[in-house]
Amino acid sequence: MKFKLIERIAVIAFAIIIATSAVLVPTISYGKYQDYLEQIKQEQGDKPDDGGGTKPSAKPTLKSISAKLADGVNYYANNLAEVKNEHFVVTATYSQEGKDDWTENVEPAQFDVSAPADFYQKGGEVTITYRGKTAVVNVSLVPVVLSAIEVAVLPYTVCYAVGSNFSNEGMVVNAIYNDGSKQALQSNDYNVDKTTLKQSDKSVTVSYTENGVTKTTTVAITVQQTVQNGNPTAIEIVGDAIVNVGQTVSDAMLQVNAVYANGNKKLLNADEYAIKTDSEVVAFGKQYTVEVALTDNNAIKTSASVVVRAHVEGENGTVVGGNTKTEDEYIVDKNGSLVKTGNGVTFAGGFSKTASSGQEASVSFSFNSLTQSSGTITMRCGNSYLKYANGSNADGGYIMQPLQISTVLDVTINGNEVAIPATVVLKGCGPWESYAPLYGIYYEFTFDAQFDAGVNVVKFQFKPSTEGALNCWGESPSTMNIDYVNFDSKGREIASDAKVTALELADNFSLVYGTNLSDVVLPVVGVLQDGTKVGVDASIYKVELVGGTGKDYVEFGEYTATVTLLSDPTIKVTAKTEVERTYHFVVLTAGVQIENGRVMYVFTGESIGYEAKDIVFFDDGGNIPATITFGKTTFEMKIDATDFATGSQCYPHLKIKGENYNNGGANANGDIRDRGLTWEEGQSVTLNGKVYTITAAYSMPTLVVSAQ
Length: 708
Hints:
By secondary structure, this protein is mostly beta strands. The strands form 15 sheets. Strands 15, 16, 17, 18, 19, 20, 25, 33 and 35 form a nine-stranded mixed beta sheet that branches. Strands 21-24-34-29-30 form a five-stranded antiparallel beta sheet, with no helix packed on it. A hairpin with a 4-residue loop joins strand 9 (about 170-175) and strand 10.
């Protein structure tokens, strides 16, 4: 099990932090055009009549503006404070010759609001600007203080015998704060006012003190001369019953309580109940019910819908423009200290540099869903929005600001966008004297999603911050360390006698250049009598692809796909797709070898759309002849280095159609480097008294020629 930290979850309205390294952070004004029209009108004043005899009236003049916080708006010292136009009431005062001054409220969309970059942490002066006039509102952050406690889950025992001790086993107590957040308390955090119980006791009082503030609540109890729970009268499943894809319903992860007539409950051990469900392996998207009965009394039972989970580790996705690593995990303990858990987290991350350069920075996962169904996506991630704690330099240490997910991440399922609400935020932490441990702290966040019947390709694509957010080094926080992703759904019910009455191909049906025709997998969906869409096994239909020039792989151009149900050839679907011409060239390996008595400097990689005439190899001495052999989507390039002079070094560069090779943003010189390039450092061959060695120079696999 992953280490889980009981954390405070903010539910206040101001749950998104948007900050930059600039001194002021303006919000967007939506009323510029209206202001423009109003200004023209005021500059013109009243027009004279056709005879020109009417003197234009004086123009209204904006004298000043005033501003205040709207009623009920508070900013709390919880690292989540963010100024918004609608949080302020702005009043404009006008004057005009011959009239008394008057005031008008200004719509939020008409004015601009700016605040210091560290407002989320310290508050400060908020500047309101409207048509050249300004007003300042000095905002103090409201300290987060304890406002109440609640018993969210009653203890197992609420009926006691005289002289018994109160038991908090099973009880969940939450501290509630004035900013609306809650935190689950540990049993040693709170006190109860009674230990040994008397028959007159009707309740116990639970109290919790934090920073000098004490709050209480009560738990109703019954005390009798004697108590016999007797046999359970019912059982209950607590929370969700979760089954991982590939398991059976009998493998469901769940908690079961026995319930007694007197109100007491008992957490059952696994051998005290049995799951009375067949051993069908679950499929994502299908609805299942788990039925549980007491082991010694099968008549006492209950049931619940099952959450089917597709769990994927971040490092097992298809990573583009990032990397996978393993690093230490940390938590923030109740005293605010950072503690190493002793666990190493392997993750997909490191996307920021690639995303900021405008290239694809993504990780993708693929799984099957039996039906078109709703569910959730939960990600466990480490934050990347690192800032200086004092706002300007590292002297005060570092903090990890809360990161609004939608500002740096786009999520699609089969190319269709998944909406991430602005309230979905990856929690921040700190301050701490060094920054490295902060990257090792992980939190979960969840958002809703709609899954397609059949194959679901879920892509998490990073982008430069849409709010212009920058970390303390002036970089966009366009990455997260993704530990794992859970796709959860309770699915849809499918009748046992359901039949496919129609076939469909997904709207975004596409083919990938270079795929063997025999390996093409189409997104085929079956439609049942009731309209439910389901994924169907390839064994029940046949596919015919028409297009290309007769090669055995997918080419550029138009293809027509026809899918026919084998059991009923009248049920078929036909769709067309265009495989658009694309261009792709990336060098992935470098090495040196001897072939037919010659020394070859060899590079391999991926190529789509290019020909040999498009590729030019060069170093600082000029162009060098190269022989390139292309596969469907690959290439091998060989440079004859036999006659390179002793003492020379060949720094590898490329031009692609006259443009320098894209090396992932390292520079614009055409260096063959980065973008996943690997080589064996020190690899060498010897021929005719010369040694040819591959070594690293300026991060390139440079060929060095030396005397034997």
